[in-house]
Specification:
about 290 residues, alpha/beta, Rossmann fold, GMP Synthetase, Chain A, domain 3, six-stranded mixed sheet, three-stranded mixed sheet, globular, RNA-binding, KH_dom-like_a/b, cell membrane, GTP-binding
Length: about 290
């Protein structure tokens, strides 16, 4: 009988490299929201993949940026924590990237004592010659890392990378119950689904000034009743979120409800409200309330 392998696999990289797409491909569920905008992921999200003789705990972290305000500093704290408990570090880059946005993080990867898998993503958009140049570039920068070309979106080479991760994990009992998919509560996924719709449908600063808080989550046998509040920083943003006669807010609610019904496999009723919470992104007590500061 095979011995049981368990461990933490932490995924890091610049914004928009496809970390969330890879995480969801590994887990087989949509745990991390995905949009084309930078800073889509704000928290560190665990996705747990279980087999008879393994448990892989995947960690999707915010894209690495230079913080401009307190919220972004808190987001980078989640990335720092990813170095502390990893058994395998997955560093994702895409074709054309030359370096990480933060040199200190890059030094940590360079000096890592644990296995590092460098995944060169979006190879479906590249020509062979450029791909070979990129592999050579990263081999010189990180000679100790294993380099794997992948396409997370097209699922190319994803299974092979997952199998390699299993080989690298230590022998250990499972850390979480075998039927657990993530470390986050239901309300977190309601908040993230709503935030994803806001990222998709609103422009400029609006999505970055938004936080979502679910005040009520009542699950009955045949329906889940949800009441969520969308926080913005200014009155003008509140008007934009609501839209003409409430049309913009209604679209967010309808699209989120469809996704949540798939996620929970149950009928969902959702009520949305918009409130102004001035300057919450630079307010440490507000950030703590939203789960950013310990």
């Amino acid at each position: 009988m095979n011995k049981h392998r368990s461990g933490f696999v932490n995924i890091i990289g610049n914004p928009n490299v496809g970390k969330s797409t890879l995480m969801n491909a590994f887990v087989g569920e949509k745990l991390s929201i995905i949009t084309s905008k930078a800073q889509t992921t704000r928290h560190r999200i665990l996705g747990i993949v279980n087999g008879d003789d393994f448990q892989v705990i995947l960690s999707d972290t915010p894209g690495i940026i230079k913080p401009a305000y307190e919220l972004q500093s808190s987001m980078m704290d989640f990335v720092k924590s990813a170095f502390e408990d990893a058994d395998v570090l997955v560093y994702m880059v895409e074709i054309g990237e030359k370096a990480l946005k933060d040199e200190a993080f890059f030094k940590k990867i360079e000096n890592s004592k644990i296995p590092v898998l460098l995944l060169l993503n979006k190879i479906d958009t590249s020509e062979q010659e450029i791909l070979e140049e990129q592999i050579q570039h990263w081999q010189q920068l990180l000679p100790k890392a294993e380099i794997h070309p992948i396409s997370a979106l097209e699922n190319f080479n994803v299974k092979e990378v997952f199998d390699r991760i299993l080989e690298l994990l230590p022998e250990a009992p499972p850390y979480y119950p075998k039927d657990q998919l993530t470390d986050k509560p239901e309300r977190f996924f309601v908040n993230e689904t709503l935030r994803e719709k806001i990222l998709l449908h609103y422009k400029k600063e609006i999505p970055y000034a938004v936080e979502v808080e679910t005040e009520e989550f009542i699950e009955d046998d045949d329906i889940i009743r949800i009441r969520s509040v969308i926080m913005v920083e200014r009155d003008t943003q509140k008007g934009i979120i609501i839209g003409h006669k409430g049309s913009a807010l209604k679209r967010v609610g309808v699209e989120a409800r469809k996704d949540l019904e798939k996620f929970f496999d149950k009928q969902v009723h959702i009520e949305l409200y918009v409130k102004v919470n001035k300057n919450w992104r630079n307010n440490t007590s507000q950030l703590r309330r939203f789960g950013y500061n310990s």
